[in-house]
Amino acid sequence: MQRIGTLTCLLLVVAVAACSLTTAGFPVSVTDDRGVTLLVDAPPARIVAVGALYAEIVVGLGALDRLIAVADSPDNPAETHELPSVGPSYAPSVEAIVALEPDLVLGATDWGGERAALEAVGILVLTTPILTGVPDIFDAIDTVGTAIGAHHAGAALIGHLADEIVRSEGLVLDLPDVTAAFLYASTPDDPPYAAGSGAIEHELILRAGGVNVFADIHGFPQVSFEAILATDPSVIFTAPSQVANLSGHPLLQGVAAVRDGRVVGIRGSDVTSTRVVEALRAMIEALHGIAF
């Protein structure tokens, strides 16, 4: 029975290390997803969050009073629903952001040129690296916490999440592994994309007491319907809106997960966010019938 003990140890090490840090005075330095070191001169009082992850982190750090706007996303925390919008998270309005005169913008990227445009007018932009594992979530919390002067709150949040993950994982350590796959099928006709090694979904399958039938691939390649039939996962995880695309596909009716009604919706935004504990617990319940 293969488990993920090294990653459990890493969770504990990260949590302990974070909790041992002391709050640094400003200015502070943080490193963004480009590897660029950013200097934050003073605690930001006006923060714009572009992306649900950043809104969640700011709320989780107890800094909602400093969050002045968010980008539109169905995954934004409920506490932010009354805040002004700066447009969709995939294409935020630079003009709207600039008009709000923020001290810090979290999450704007180079994809649409928003980061460069904001930095050109002197606005500080911080975007953390892409999340490929649970430790990356902790790193994002630590980085944002440092940048906004809430490092102790960040350490506490990391410690809480780490503790809940280890407790949840402990419930399945002595249970038989269950074969599983995490697939994304945006259309009912095209072959889906599978989470392989190096994806946070893969890590969570292992933590939940499962065996990823696509562990031999890396990232999120497209896999054939024949490959899904051949690997025959007992449980399939997918986005809630995509369950029918898989469970209703005629070529997949012989797959154990489809035949037994075990195609389970898990929101991708829960997997890659501070709600990762909820995602893990939902996966444990689907794999082993343990209710939380």
Strand order of the largest sheet: 5-4-3-6-7
Mean pLDDT: 92
Number of domains: 2
* CA-atom Rg in angstroms: 20 Å
Number of strands: 12
Under CATH, the topology of the largest domain can be stated as Rossmann fold
Helix-strand makeup class: alpha/beta
Please estimate the helix content: 25-40%
- Please provide the ordered H/E string of secondary-structure elements: HEEEHEEHEHEHHEEHEHEHHEHH
| Spatial shape | globular
Distance between the amino and carboxyl termini? 24 Å
Number of helices: 12
Fraction in beta strands:
15-25%
Describe what you observe in this structure.
It is built from twelve helices and twelve strands. Helix 1 runs parallel beside helix 5 (134-148) and helix 5 (134-148) runs antiparallel to helix 6 (151-170). The protein has a five-stranded parallel sheet with strand order 5-4-3-6-7. Strands 8, 9, 10, 11 and 12 form a five-stranded mixed sheet that branches. The longest helix has 20 residues, at 151-170. With 292 residues, it is of the alpha/beta class.
